[in-house]
Write a structure and sequence with these properties.
hypothetical protein PF0899 fold; 3-stranded mixed sheet; 3-stranded antiparallel sheet; 2 helices; 29% strand; disordered C terminus
Length: 122
């Protein structure tokens, strides 16, 4: 289960953003996970919920979108969707490709939590 280490790394990035931009908190986090990373969204969600308990992020929502893998054959130039464990080009049958998409996990956005209005009456 590499999902917990993914979440730990992501939470460090988010905490840096919170500190840098002096955010009151975060209500939503959107990420994109490439299919070649073999992330199971339900386990990633579970890891997220467990990791934020008792922190300033508790109650934040994690939105996960998945990105389809795309590769380009270095031999014939064909662009195709590779299998997770097989990068053989369907056109020329050579396994020599550059991965274009699908092997990344990207923090797309965070939504700052709105703060409650302060009572400024004296």
């Amino acid at each position: 289960m590499h999902e917990f280490s993914i979440i730990d790394s992501m939470l460090l990035q988010i905490q840096d953003l919170i500190d840098t931009h002096q955010l009151a908190g975060v209500s939503e986090i959107a990420i994109e996970a490439g299919e070649l990373r073999q992330v199971i969204p339900e386990i990633l969600e579970f890891a997220f919920v467990q990791s934020i308990q008792g922190t300033g992020l508790e109650g934040a929502r994690l939105c996960i979108s998945q990105c389809e893998a795309q590769a380009r054959c270095r031999t014939c130039g064909q662009t195709y969707r590779p299998a997770v464990a097989d990068f053989t080009c369907p056109a020329c049958r050579v396994a020599n490709a550059d991965i274009l998409t699908g092997d990344q996990i990207i923090l797309i956005s965070i939504t700052a939590r709105e703060t409650a209005p302060q009572d400024i009456t004296t």
